[in-house]
Amino acid sequence: MRKTKYLIVGSSHAALEALRAIRQVDGDGAMAMLTRDAHLPYSPTILPYVVSGRSPASRVLLRDEKFFAENGCTFVPNATATALDANARTVALASGETWYYEKLLIATGAAPAIPPIPGLENVRFHVLRSLEDAQALRASMQGARRAVVLGAGLVGLHAAENLAEAGLVVSVVEMQDHVLAGYFDATASTRIEAAFRDHGVTLHLGRKAVGIEGAGESCTVRLDDGTGIEADLLLVAVGVKPAVEWLAGSGIAINKGVLVDDALRTNLPDIWAAGDVAEARDFHTGSPSLIGIIPTAVEQGRIAGMGMAGDSYLKPYAGGVPVNTFRFFGRVALSIGKTTEGGAEIAEHEAQGYRRAVLAEGRLIGFSSVDEPFDVGVMGELIRRRVDLSGCRESFLARPLETGRRLMSEGWR
Amino acid sequence: MGAFDTIAFHPERCDGCGACMTACSTAKGGASRLSIVPGAGDGRFELALCRQCGDPRCVMVCPAGALFKESDTGVIAWDETRCIDCLLCTAGCAYAGIALDDASGRVSKCDTCDGDPACVKVCPTGALEWVTAGDIYRDYGEKEDLFVPGLSACQGCNSELIIRHAMRKIGRNAVVATPPGCIPGMGSVGYNGKTGCKVPVFHPLLTNTASMLAGIRRQYDRTGRKDMVVMALAGDGGTSDCGFHAVSGAAERNEKILYVCVDNEGYMNTGMQRSSTTPFGSWTSTTPVGDHMRGKSQDAKDLPMVMVAHKCAYVATASTGYMDDLYAKLDKAIAASFEGFSYLHIYSPCPTGWRIPSDKVIEACRLSVESNFVTLWEYTREKGLHFTRSPDRPIPVQAYVEMLGKYRHLNAAETAHIQAKVDEKVALLRQLAAA
Question: Which of A184, A215, A238 represents a domain boundary (last residue)?
């Protein structure tokens, strides 16, 4: 059995930030990072760019061997955790190896959700979560002519753009009435949809795939209105689900993800969870939710790491704020906070671009735009700090960029 | 993690001319990487610029590894070949320090022009300033501390800062005289037969410091040791009162000495008695505040100006609130001490004797300079006198005196007297600087 003080299971953004936070106060406590992946750390967000060929697989790694050596962290790839024994403080691996920990961080991320569509099991389909997935999709793309993408979220739309730019005939199937429905209101989504249609992508919105006919590479995707779409490349991108299977029977409290408090602690002693696997406070509702994005993973990883190392400067997690920065065909769509519903005041402007500010009680709760870039981090700070905008409401709504920059400069010299 | 050079913004000086943005845009061939925006009131302006954070959120949220903090400069660097233009970094920054450049479709951010920022050079009001203090602390942190660990002064005292940093710079080839005062008081000459410095140090009389150093220098010259820094770390009392004849004589003979005067405006070590450099109105134990006296009734002797009149090889004033300025002068003062008498006057607010909270001493340094109570300048025979920090646009001296307990009793007329003396001094210095 191998032993360590800090055991981090997972190797993406939350895990790396936890490592950094631990090393801020504990320079030499033994640490190990285990990952089911075969590679040094990388971000799932980079994968669409590996598919398009823009980022060679060799240049997407976030850390090198030297980093782990310098930080006194044993990095163990190809280490799939299969079981947690919280009483014995051990994590068992598929290889048969076990690791003893004093402090454990669960940062195993998420895995693609596979919808229960009859016939899907008979065909070869792609997902996009790992470097291997990206390389496989890129390889298939070369010989394919017609692609169907199930799901019009970020992963699905990124891939649809890549496939269309590579010359394939692309169809996207989405159950919701609009693309990126979680992030944008109908007006914003409609602009994005128009761009995809202009680039030859067929969008089947408000439609559900009810069956997959065929076998192997070629298939027909049957929709709930009876339409059949032929494909020789099928990508399933309907979302992700936290990678929690290995925790079954461990006593860890799980809803959809691992439930954590505002210090990112699980219900069991000396075990924390952060990133896409964790179900933590939502800033707006105050209730646990899954917000699987990099900024929340980083924030959660930092707080978890501080807690693991006993850092006295730890401040509780304020809750996740949804953030989306989306580039499509060279254009920009951005959103932060609660932009699709709620809010007493909604200010929309549509000139060259479109923007939407949502305020409640004189404070910003959400901001989104298409074709009109803004400082996402500045708006995020105004939201998270609940900055009272009543004194500058007019200038904020008329010139949000300028006013936001002013407020941050004034407030934090 | 170390400290680094940085671009500082002084909003009260910014007039919104926008020259910085034009210069940035020209230098970088794209959108300006800093933006000046209207502030809360008329004529007020604010700045959005990368702050080169110590724990940069933009770096941590980048999925491509395209941003990283350079370990030698502290700059957050952007690798355009790895960047995928996803804009997540802009979600990480609360200051709009990294933003989309519409023209290129890519993000852009300040790289400080490799330590020579174009924006600072064109700023006509000094609202943007290239502060190099960070670099100094980093460099000095790596040098050997020649003052023994564990010895210390009153909490918040400047003198320890001055000794530890000055000796780091000067190095092991030095002989140090520390005449009676706070510096030997905190242990430079040691206890129980051991000294508090890792270089030869001795304890002359208040009266003969400069004379003894002159002899030591001559002996080193005689034996061919031209590399030795022969120096004093003395207080203002030992320099301007009891030791003045020796200082004046050594300066007049142009003895090759580095004479550092740490001016805390009195004999603080022995119970806070007044000296000739104690300013008007100051409470001291010998100029008390009561029915018959209201602190010192005379004005301070301007010792650095007296040393200019000696036409020393080098004369400069410095403040620990402006370490980059102090260190630049220390370099010059050391070099000049191999040529002739070199005099460095460091103003050093005393938390104990001046009644300043120990965490406010550096703030007192800064306000003393911002109000022109202390002016920063240097003099050489060749180039005459010039300011190293502009005395233009000072704050009222009231802002400085009101934070010091020793001036707590001052009435408006007394404060006005101090202001008048400050104005008079600055006017004379301006004449000398213009000549």
Answer: A238
